[in-house]
Design goal:
This protein has one domain: Glutaredoxin (3-Layer(aba) Sandwich), CATH 3.40.30. The strands form two sheets. Strands 2-1-5-4-3-8-9 form a seven-stranded mixed sheet. Strands 6-7 form a two-stranded antiparallel ribbon. It is built from five helices and nine strands; from the N terminus they run E-E-E-H-H-E-H-E-H-E-E-E-E-H. With 158 residues, the chain is α+β, with helices and mostly antiparallel strands. The protein is globular, with a radius of gyration of 14 Å.
Length: 158
């Protein structure tokens, strides 16, 4: 994996959201900061806890002029169910062919219970209004992700 780092230009992309609308990263250029967070699979325990944490701090994130885009390889229909079941209040994007995960350097070999397979590594990227990665979140627990994100937003965007 060749993961993007702070200072790198984020690759532009267009993906379908949970309502089957096209969302493009560059549509936020000059307007909003973007938290792009990659998660392995909707409806799983860790991904649910992570999403619920972000849901619960949406007001504070929006106050920092930041929008959240969650990306997984789940199909649009599964994202719709995930949003509805957990009352999520941010955009979920479907990257079924993992091209965007590849572009951000979060697709690669994983190990779970002795098995090796390719999948999404749980990483998040804070991208500024010019499209540059200003921070990579790579050390957090799913239950603390939202706290780590909010602390960094407060630090960087005070």
């Amino acid at each position: 994996m060749n993961t993007l780092q702070a200072g790198d230009k984020a690759p532009d992309f267009t993906l379908q959201d949970q309502h089957d609308n096209s969302v493009t990263l560059s549509q936020f250029a000059g307007k909003k900061n973007v938290l792009v967070y990659f998660y392995p699979k909707a409806m799983t325990p860790g991904c649910t806890v992570q999403a619920q944490g972000l849901r619960d701090i949406q007001t504070q994130i929006q106050e920092k002029d930041t929008v959240v885009l969650g990306i997984s390889i789940d199909p649009v229909k599964r994202l719709t169910k995930f949003e509805e079941k957990h009352d999520l209040n941010f955009t979920l994007l479907s990257d079924e062919d993992h091209q965007i995960a590849d572009a951000f350097g979060v697709w690669g070999l994983k190990k779970f219970m002795g098995k090796e397979y390719d999948g999404i590594h749980r990483l998040s990227f804070l991208i500024d209004k010019e499209g540059t990665v200003i921070h990579v979140f790579n050390k957090f627990k799913t239950k603390d992700h939202h706290t780590v994100v909010l602390e960094k937003l407060n630090e960087l965007l005070a």
